[in-house]
Structures are given as C-alpha cells and as structure tokens.
Amino acid sequence: MPEPTPMDGLTIPHFVLVPLPAQGHTIPMVDIAHLLAERGVTVTFVTTPVNAARIRKVIDRAEAAGLPIGFLELRFPCAEAGLPEGCENVDLLPSLELTPAFFRACGLLREPLLDRLREPHQPPASCIVSDMWHLWTQGVADELGVPRLIFHGTGCFPLLCMRNIRSSILFDEVNDDTKPLMVPGLPHRIEITKGQSPFFRQDPESERLWNEMLTADEACHGVVVNSFHEMESLYIEGYQKAIGKKAWAIGPVCLYNKNEDVSVKAVRGNKSSDDGLQCLAWLDSVAPRSVVYASFGSVAYISPSQHVEIGEGLKASNHPFVWVIKPREQSPALEQWLAEGFVESTEGRGFVIRGWAPQVAILSHSAVGGFVTHCGWNSCLEAICAGVPVLTWPFFAEQFLNERLMVSVLGIGVAAGVNTRTMLMGDEIMVKREAVEESVRKLMDGGEEGEERRKRTKELGEKARKAMEVAGSSYQNMTDLIQEVSLHNVKVRSKMGREA
Ligand code: UDP
C-alpha cells in the first residue's frame, strides 16, 4: 500500500538536511531522510566525501529504490580550519581538542552550500533541517528565505534538564562536585552532581558554543526530535513551553526500516567490520536473551586499562558477551593482553569486535539480553526498540541525563555507578572489573527485579513501534511537520505574489 501523502493540493516540499558529521548525529538524519522520502518529500542530504563513502551502500540503495533523496557532497575545508586532511567526522579527530577547529570547518560550508542550493537544476529549498551545532545554517535559511528547523539528536528530557540546569544558580553556587543536586522545574525528582553535569569544567570556547546552541532554539522555526510521546510526553510539553516553539517528536527514527532487513541494519553509518558480520552469525548459535553487548558509541574513548577491566568483568560475569573495541582504542598492549589468554579463556562465549559493529542488527538479535552503553541518545533508543535493558555508563555531554531517564524515570536501566564526567584520553580506569561483573550480573539477572525491568523495556519498545506505524503519534507528527513546511511555503509565495 502506498504511504498516504500529507501534502494533497500543495507543491512537494524540499527538505534540506544538514547533519553534523558525527555518527550519533548523522545516522538518525539518514533515517529522517528516508522517512521523509517515503512520504513523497524531496530531500537533499548534505555530506562530504569521506562521510559519503561511509554511507555509500545506503546512498546506492536509496537511488535503486527510486527514493527522492539527493546526496549533496561538499568539500570539507580541513586545511583552512587547521585540521589534518581527511578529518571529516568527529570520530576521525586525532584529539577532541580539535573540536573547535572542526566546528570552524563546518562553518566554512556556508557559502559553498548556498551556491549549490542556488544552482538552477536544484528545486527551491522549502526548509533547512540543521543539526543543533551548525549555528551558521540560520544564515543560510535567512538568505534563502526559508524556515530553519533544529535537529538536536537527543530527547526532550535531557534538553529540558540542560536548560533548567543552566538557568539555576544552584549548580554555580555549590563547591562540592559530588553532592547530588535536584534539577529544578521537572515533573520527576531528578538528581545529578555538578561533576556529572554536561557543563562541568568547560573551556570558555565550549561554554560559548553551548550558550549559543541552547538559545538558538528560541530563534528557529521549530525543533525536530528523535523521540516519541509515549516515552517522554511531559518533557516534550515542558520543552516546547520553555522554548516557545513546536517540537515535533518523529521517532524513534531507527525504526524506519520496517521490514527489519538485517542487511540494511548492518550498514548504518559505516561499513561493518568483518568481526561484526561474523558476530551476527555467532549470535545465531547462542541461547535467547543470554548475551550482554558492550559498546560505547562512536566518540567516547575507553583507555587500554579500562578495556582490560571491562573484559575481565564480562568474563567473570559468566554471561556470553559481545564487546566492541573502536579503531582508536586498539593498541599493541591491549592486543597482547587479548592474545595472552583472554581470547582463549572466553572462546565460544565471548566475541570481540574490532571496528564498526552492526549495532542495531546485534541489539535486535534474540540472543541479546542486555546492553552496556555510554548512554548516547541513539544507543538508548536502539536498546528500547529492541526491548533490551541497559547498563548505563555515561561519559560526557548529556549522557548522565540520559542515564537518569533510563534508570530513574523509565526504570529500564541499571547504573554502573560512574561519578563524574570524563573526556580523558589517558590510561584511566573509571569502573573496576569487580563493579563491571556485579552490575552485569544485576542487568542480566533473571530474578523478579530483572524480569520487571525486561518487561518494562519490551512494553516501551512496543509503544515505540506503534508510534511509528501509520496513525501512530510519531507518524502523525511527521505528517504535521510536512504540512507545516508546505503551508509555510504557500504563505510565503502568496505574500511574494502580492508584493510583486
Ligand atoms: N554505532 C554502530 N556501530 C558502532 C558504534 C556505533 O552502529 O560500532 C551507531 C549506534 O548504533 C548509534 C550511533 O552509532 O546509532 C552512535 O550514536 P549514540 O548517540 O549512541 O552515541 P555517540 O556515538 O554519538 O556518542
């Protein structure tokens, strides 16, 4: 059955999507491009050569399916911004200290993007959906005379918490970084320490960026959120009130792939490593819900010593496991430790993935029963959609707030007990092996508490699926969003017609 079109009688709108080149921001934008295109909207997805190469299969598939998505490649100005050549994604930066230079490079895309969007063969843009960190896209939208919508990549619970933490003097006045403080103005009692706050010990450049980013919400046309009403309606309402703008919850967008095709799930964001593909075959041989999957997203850095503690903790828990080590984290010392007994002693019940894991495909496998996560927003949603409870191990940004949502509000997570925000790149250990073992046992526990947690996660996953179905809340919000942009264009055109 063809998807019902929400634009009857109106011209087909053209959405220009400008994602931040960071996996946690780009992947959901790719999903949004598909969701829009499936509803008949013309989409331009802005990317760069290195990032386009990573999603080549997705691009080819969209083309083969005849979806109206154009992938617009812009040269990424590494040299001009002081970045090593090829650093076109946050996960390719040799050090997170280069983040300001990376943002500078993004800002330099403004003129080339405007030029390309003005090329005669391009359909006129109807709106820009921009990542929150691309503050420069407001200028692009203004020059084109179209609305700018912001995509934050996170949910309304963390967004509202962040706004309320910033506007509260409580967090400034306290000297003790470990004292739990109540986040003001929320429907639930949520506590967080100063050391866990996203703004803890920020350098002035990041401080300025956060301020600008959070206030930009008030200047934009509205906000697009990868979330769903059934999960955080109170917070969606609270956030809309706070910014005085509409927030369209259209997710979880990872569910766009309705036919659950594993080959599609396995190429999200990047080409899966060989280990990753072999892992999927290995999972077929393991008992249902017995495996714990440990992966910390695309940016958080796990030191070699911390990896050893994770490995020992997983092994001691006695549960089968899949454990991801990012390319940036691989080291001769870690390889040596793996080779000197670990791999052998966990043979048949442990699987190490070096490189990109097909995460959604792994989480959706019936053998997986728990997820050790850094609490990136996408990872949290992907766990919910798969009905897999989480062991929360946040690092930075809004991840501690996402942990509170998973553990305290939704009751689908166990906290690993991380006390403070960390962006360190040294050889630190945040959680010792005994604590890893204990919390993994708790997560995978088949007792009453564990079963209740599992049941809640599953029920929430069902609600997520319903939200994305025809007539579900997120589906309806997508309809509203498309109509809003279409009607806005009609109004602008008729005003221009009257003025001519
Ligand atoms: N991801 C993946 N394979 C990996 C690492 C990450 O598929 O080996 C995906 C993951 O499924 C999610 C995204 O990358 O969609 C990471 O986003 P998230 O918000 O969880 O964390 P971030 O990387 O932004 O910290």
UniProtKB/TrEMBL annotation:
Broad enzyme group: transferase
Among CDD domains, the record links this protein to: GT1_Gtf-like (cd03784)
Q: Which UniProt keywords apply?
A: Glycosyltransferase, Transferase
Sequence ranges assigned to domain Glycosyltransferase N-terminal in this UniProt record: 16-253
Q: Name one GO molecular function term.
A: UDP-glucosyltransferase activity
What EC numbers are recorded for this enzyme? Answer: 2.4.1.-
Q: Where is this region: Disordered?
A: 443-463
Q: Which domain of life is it from?
A: Eukaryota
The record's listing under PROSITE patterns reads:
UDPGT
Which InterPro entries does the UniProt entry name for this protein?
Glyco_transf_N, UDP_glucos_trans, UDP_glycos_trans_CS
Sorted alphabetically, which Pfam families does this protein's record hold? Answer: Glyco_transf_N (PF26168), UDPGT (PF00201)
Q: Which Gene3D superfamilies match?
A: Glycogen Phosphorylase B (3.40.50.2000)
Q: Does the keyword Ubl conjugation apply?
A: no
Q: What's this protein's family per the entry?
A: Belongs to the UDP-glycosyltransferase family.
The protein here is known as Glycosyltransferase
Taxonomic lineage? Eukaryota, Viridiplantae, Streptophyta, Embryophyta, Tracheophyta
